[in-house]
Specification:
The protein is an all-alpha fold. It has a domain of about 70 residues. The radius of gyration is 18 Å and the shape is globular.
């Protein structure tokens, strides 16, 4: 889904705004490589973040109960102000109810590209295709 969403964003939003010619294949190759670099840099350097200053959550878990996850993040990071922010958080989340995410079809080529190039992230974060 991340792959298809990123491809859609770059081909539908960024491509029309380009200042030079770039093919969809080049765009795809670029975001595949950037994601790989980001993953490895993050995994390599996240130990530098002081304990108690990082909370990792799966997007799917956040989608299930964004309010509870937000409260949990506030607690884990020892952030003040959750009670005061509750009404605005609830208001914001209320606006998102009923939002329909894009649905993507995953052809064999896409699955192969993700497994070959982003398999390390799938494995590290417990995802499977």
């Amino acid at each position: 889904t991340v792959f298809e969403s990123t491809r859609s964003f770059f081909t539908n939003t960024i491509q029309p705004l380009r200042l030079q010619d770039i093919s969809n294949e080049q765009i795809e190759s670029n975001f595949i490589e950037v994601y790989r670099r980001l993953f490895y840099k993050y995994e390599e350097q996240k130990h530098l973040i002081p304990e108690g200053n990082l909370v990792e959550v799966k997007f799917e878990d956040f989608e299930q109960d964004a309010f509870a996850m937000t409260e949990d993040i506030y607690k884990k990071l020892n952030l003040p102000g959750f009670e005061a922010s509750k009404p605005e958080i609830e208001k914001y989340l209320g606006k998102k109810k009923g939002y329909k995410k894009n649905q993507y079809k995953y052809d064999d080529r896409t699955v192969q590209l993700v497994e070959e190039n982003w398999g390390m992230a799938l494995k590290e974060w417990g995802y499977s295709l």
